[in-house]
Design brief:
5-stranded mixed beta sheet; 6 helices; elongated
């Protein structure tokens, strides 16, 4: 049976943890409100790029050798399964690719790199840090997209793994297609547009690629903040329940100690008589 000192130390420890989780919940709530507010205009970037590619009916040949995988996470944890769900989707995707496929991974955020580096270290093309400390901007997406496009890896097609924000308590891990310049140029539907030469297609592809990266970073950031707020709320409630149980145990133990000491005093007095 634990002593009063041990229970008291445990009670102080859990109380301190509850204060931390409550503070983190308040910070996450403020960041979530800002992220959700910024997400609405940012969705136009990704939805516009996706609508264009859907209209052009660009074909994706899975037998082509060079595949690009982009994981959108952050550097911070304590947000449930936000990052691990993306990593699980990437592992399942790579496992399902045919043999001989040259797959390269781009990790946006330390979490994706840490979870994938052990098994797919050789496939890691590049990674980006300092993600999640501040709200992502279009300039951040430009840095990422330029680094990928100028890396020298000519991918045939790619996949962008991200979390789509649904509500405060839910998000959906999904995959968006990324297209290379040759796949867009060779699409029959692209020639339906007037006055489109190779330079225009190249410029638009780079712009659409950046738009999708920016869209993924915004969606994942909002999902992360909502998940962290929910996780910290649950942690605070669990800490409160544990504090109540520890207080009950402390009072019972204290009462038992007092009762035992009274019995010893009475027994000693009776023995002297």
């Amino acid at each position: 049976m634990a002593t009063l000192k041990e229970i008291s130390m445990r009670l102080k420890s859990v109380t301190s943890i509850q204060k931390i989780t409550k503070s983190m919940k308040m910070v996450s709530a403020a960041k979530y409100a800002r992220a959700e507010r910024e997400l609405k205009p940012a969705r136009a970037y990704g939805q516009g790029a996706n609508a264009f590619f859907e209209k052009t009916d660009i074909a994706r040949d899975e037998k082509q050798p060079n595949h690009l995988v982009v994981a959108v996470t952050s550097d911070r944890g304590l947000c449930g399964a936000v990052h691990s769900n993306i990593v699980k989707a990437i592992r399942a995707s790579i496992a399902g690719k045919p043999e001989g496929t040259n797959t390269k991974i781009v990790a946006i955020g330390d979490k994706a790199r840490n979870l994938l580096h052990k098994k797919y270290g050789k496939e890691m093309l590049m990674h980006f840090v300092d993600i999640g400390k501040k709200s992502p901007t279009f300039s951040d997406a430009v840095i990422v997209s330029e680094a990928i496009l100028e890396s020298g890896f000519d991918f045939d097609f790619g996949d962008l793994h991200l979390n789509i924000f649904k509500s405060v308590v839910s998000y959906r891990t999904t995959t968006l297609p990324l297209y290379s310049l040759p796949s867009i140029t060779n699409s029959p539907s692209i020639h339906a547009f007037d006055s489109i030469d190779e330079e225009i297609v190249r410029c638009y592809n780079e712009f659409a690629f950046t738009n999708l990266i920016y869209f993924g970073m915004k969606e994942s950031a909002t999902s992360e903040q909502s998940a962290r707020m929910t996780s910290m709320d649950s942690a605070s409630k669990n800490a409160g329940e544990m504090i109540d149980k520890l207080r009950l145990t402390y009072n019972r133990t204290r009462q038992a100690v007092i009762t035992r000491e009274l019995i010893e005093i009475i027994s000693g007095a009776a023995a002297l008589e």
